[in-house]
Amino acid sequence: MTQTIERTALGQLLTNEEYARKVMPHMKGDYFGDRTERIVFEEIHKFLEKYNALPTRDTLEIEIDTRRDLNEDDIKRVLTAVRELSVDDDVNAEWLIDTTEKFCKDRAVYNAIVEGISIIEGKDKKRGADALPSILTDA
Q1: What is the number of helices (H) and of strands (E) in the chain?
Q2: What is the pLDDT of residues 30-50, one digit of tens each?
Q3: Higher pLDDT pick, 136 / 63
């Protein structure tokens, strides 16, 4: 499996508490374009918020296995992704945080643009064009 910043971040979120505490306040589930990775992130995030600690791989697998909103194939796919997460203990911490920050900024801008296009095309009936500046500012 090809290593990406998303998978690297998820692996580090499982084992590197210092990293998790620095980046988790800035990360959102919708930054993960892959649904499987998004589910893994959401489970890590929920655990960290509830218990103020990082989940173990086993804990994460149990939480995912008991989700009622996922079908059997989804559960298998997500559990496989969790098992395949690798952790590089030698990764440069400064590089990792810088790269994660860039990833978060890029995804926030991308999501804002997609949301803006949806508003402009009239697909988002809840918000009007006047919402565009605040969406881009938030990103």
Answers
A1: 7, 0
A2: 999 999 999 999 999 999 999
A3: 63
In sequence order, what are the residues at sequence separation of 6 or more whose Cβ sits closer than 8 angstroms to the Cβ of residue 90?
Answer: none
pTM of the model: 0.83
**pLDDT at residue 118 in the model:** 77
Angle between the N-to-C axes of helices 35-51 and 5-15, in degrees from 0 to 180, rounded to the nearest 10: 20
Which structure tokens are listed for 72? Answer: 């059997």
Rounded Cα–Cα distance for residues 44 and 14 (Å)? 7
Q: How far is CA 87 from CA 24, 52, 108, in A?
A: 17, 21, 25
Measured on CA atoms in the order 32, 92, 54, 23, is the torsion positive or negative?
negative
